[in-house]
Write a structure and sequence with these properties.
Layout lengths: L3 H14 L6 H12 L1 H6 L1 E4 L14 H11 L5 E5 L7 H13 L5 E3 L7 H10 L8 E3 L6 H12 L7 E3 L7 H11 L7 E3 L11 H12 L5 E3 L7 H11 L7 E3 L7 H13 L5 E3 L6 H14 L6 E3 L7 H13 L5 E3 L7 H12 L10 E6 L2 E6 L24 H5 L6
Parallel strand pairs: 1-2, 2-3, 3-4, 4-5, 5-6, 6-7, 7-8, 8-9, 9-10, 10-11
Antiparallel strand pairs: 12-13
Length: about 425
């Protein structure tokens, strides 16, 4: 006999106790899930994101969360919970921490861009000391600060279940990054971590040095995001030296740094020797034509593992883009390239138009599409990229679930 009516009655009564109306959206979702035997067996994700354009829902508050977890505690088929862009504070984090300590079925939790601070981070990280079900946690955009990040670094020394952790845009600092790097020398379960946009006061790149040391010994990390780390040539050299013998990392994100052509020379040497890396994101650096040529030389002759290259907004002209296009023609493994934001002159437009026209470069594998005006070929931008829909939900209901981040469709090992 189904327990769903009792769950809904519990939910309605709890809402009435809070002087709030019943939420028909949650009720309908739970009811549909209960009727679907397949969903009940494999679980599903309950999406209550505050930026959902398809289903207008009120933003979840701390009080709402208390009502929600009281229902979900008995709904074992809910294995994922998306609470992004809501109004949760440290009080809500306390409720969620208690739920994580008691729940043994939740595998995915998205809390990105709420108002959780340092004390909330301490509670959630503390709950993960004992939780053995959660696999993927997104804390993106919560201003937990350096101290809040330290709590998650300490958690990584103990937790052996979590596989993906997103601390991007969380205002973490030097001490947090160093502690996280040290924790990952011991942690054998984490496969992906996002450390984008820390707040760093030093220009000495100490954090990159510690992360490089970690990569020398870590054999489990598959995906690493180091965007907006103010990384320069010195830091890139340290990373490349560490990755020469690393055989696990498949996705390296170095977007929005200060990498110029000299730094790309080290990346070119890495691609000649490393046959594991599959995705390289150099978006919003300044590698220019010289750097593009370094990459094209490595990809044309030596490397046969890289599938995706993003060089968006790198001040590359037709000379460098033509060299990369020639590398694509000789390297059958390289299937995705993103080039928008560079200087797309006539030669670049022509060569990429030919690649697309002959089918060597599929439309869904790049961020440009050719069009013709008065006999001359130009390139227009497509809304594609490695970070597609990372921070916002698409308005079109037909978008596949895996398209929440285009890279997840390319390297499936990074999706949990």
């Amino acid at each position: 006999m189904s327990v769903l009516p009792d769950l809904l009655l519990h939910y309605v009564q709890a809402c009435q106790n809070l002087s709030q109306p019943e939420n028909p959206f949650i009720a309908r979702v739970l009811q549909d899930a209960d009727k679907n035997e397949e969903i009940s067996m494999r679980g599903f994700t309950l999406k209550l994101a505050g930026n959902n354009h398809l289903v207008p829902v009120p933003r979840v508050t701390d009080d709402d969360l208390g009502v929600l977890v009281s229902v979900l505690g008995q709904a074992a088929f809910v294995t994922g919970l998306d609470l992004a862009y809501n109004l949760l504070t440290d009080a809500g984090a306390k409720t969620m921490a208690t739920f994580l300590q008691e729940n043994s079925t939740l595998q995915y939790l998205n809390l990105m861009f709420n108002d959780i601070g340092t004390s909330g981070a301490e509670l959630i990280a503390g709950a993960l000391h004992s939780n053995q079900s959660l696999v993927h946690l997104r804390m993106t955009g919560n201003k937990i600060g350096n101290q809040g990040g330290m709590f998650f670094a300490s958690m990584l020394k103990i937790n052996s279940t979590l596989e993906k952790l997103d601390l991007g845009d969380c205002d973490v600092g030097l001490q947090c990054l160093v502690a996280t790097a040290k924790a990952l020398t011991q942690n054998k379960s984490l496969k992906a971590i996002n450390l984008n946009r820390p707040l760093l006061s030093s220009q000495q790149e100490e954090t990159t040095v510690h992360i490089a040391r970690m990569l020398r010994s870590n054999s489990s990390l598959v995906e690493l995001h180091l965007g907006k780390h103010e990384m320069k040539n010195f830091g890139v050299e340290r990373l490349c030296e560490a990755l020469y013998k690393n055989s696990s990392l498949r996705y390296l994100d170095l977007s929005c740094n200060n990498i110029i052509c000299d730094g790309v020379k080290f990346l070119g040497e890495l691609l000649k020797r490393n046959q594991t890396l599959q995705i390289l994101d150099l978006n919003a650096n300044r590698i220019e034509d010289v750097g593009a040529i370094y990459l094209s030389e490595a990809l044309s002759t030596w490397n046969r593992s890289l599938q995706v290259l993003s060089i968006v907004s790198n001040n590359i002209t037709g000379k460098g883009l033509v060299a990369l296009a020639q590398a694509i023609q000789s390297n059958v493994k390289l299937s995705h390239i993103y080039i928008w934001g560079n200087k797309l002159d006539r030669s670049a437009c022509m060569v990429f138009s030919e690649l697309i026209g002959m089918g060597r470069l599929q439309q869904g594998c790049t961020d440009v599409v050719p069009y013709e005006v008065d006999g001359e070929v130009f390139l227009a931008e497509l809304s594609h990229g490695l970070a597609r829909h990372r921070y916002w939900a698409p308005r079109c209901a037909a978008v596949a679930p895996g398209a929440a981040n285009a890279s997840l469709e390319i390297v499936t090992a990074s999706e949990y």
